[in-house]
Amino acid sequence: MTHCILIGAPVDEGQRRPGCLMGPAAYRTAGLAATLNALGHSTEDRGDVTPGPIGVETCANPAVHHLPETIAWTRALSAATAAALADGMPIIMGGDHSLALGTVAGVATHAARLGRPQFVIWLDAHSDFHTIESTTSGNLHGTPMAYARGMPGFEPMPPFPDPIRGENICMFGIRSVDPAEHAAMQDADITVNDMRVLDEQGIVAPLRQFLDRVRDAGGLLHVSLDVDFLDPSIAPAVGTTVPGGTTFREAHLVMELLHESGLVTSLDLVELNPFLDERGRTAKLMVDLVGSLMGRKVFDRPTRSYG
Question: What's the mean pLDDT in 227-235?
């Protein structure tokens, strides 16, 4: 069984719709620790990360906002994630997806110390492959994967510790990509399993191909799960809804396959905005998905009531 280390990341600065800072409390209220304990895992809640002093960093792109705050969060979350990996499996409870600037840096630091390759599966409606230079929205939650890949255009940020190779990154379920991101991803040699691929090939074959690559390389696998990976009809508590996401069953199948692989070493839960939820249904669904990732079988799943 796994020692799960819960880390709160109340990050709200990576986008413009307030509410994601309440995410860690929502996961705790929805019973994340109890779900993990019921599956036989041990849990340790290290509380919420607090960023260090806010700097005065600037960049040439006038659209970018909250850059110094994001840099402070990146440093703090990188350190917290790398430290947790020495003791167990970190589960970072967000918080918007800019938190992954730090968490992926942390897992890459840990992998480099072990001399093993780091892999990332990005479960998201968006590719998040803008740079600080290319973003037109200025929302830094749209930049973590370009940062992790070591793309140019992040000069105000701390250098990414050990950039992740393109073939070690899998975008899974994406369905909203800007032209600039599309061109950059092609140059970066990233595996892209968008919703068109999943519609044509199903969930299982593309995911197993990537997991086989992780296994053959002896790699560590970081899973970054965005609420908008799910269809908004079942997960409304997100400020970046994109129709056509994964269904309840598809999402659980992804989690079950990840569990069966035995390869997952760290997890992000991001973009939950409880202010937009309906009686906690999205938070509960995300906790249920973590249950499937950590070993719950379909016939063990409890009936949910929202009345």
Answer: 96
Confidence band, pLDDT 50/70/90 cuts, at residue 180: confident
pLDDT-based confidence at residue 186 (cuts at 50, 70, 90)? confident
182 is catalytic: no
Is the confidence at residue 305, as pLDDT, over 60? no
Residue 252 is a catalytic residue: no
All structural domains of the chain: 3-298 (3.40.800.10)
Is there a catalytic annotation at residue 228? yes
- The closest alpha carbon to 141, from 127, 156, 160, belongs to 127
- Of 141, 162, 181, 252, the active-site residue reads 141
**Identity (one letter) of the amino acid at 86?**
A
Is 44 within 8 Å of 88 (Cβ atoms)? yes
Of these residues, 97, 110, 222, 252, which one is catalytic? 97
User: 213 pairs with which residues across the strands?
Assistant: none
Tell me how far the alpha carbon of residue 289 is from its chain's centroid.
13
The catalytic position among 228, 231, 277, 288 is 228
Residue 271 annotated among the catalytic residues of the structure: yes
Catalytic residue list contains 141 = yes
Look up the pTM and report it: 0.96
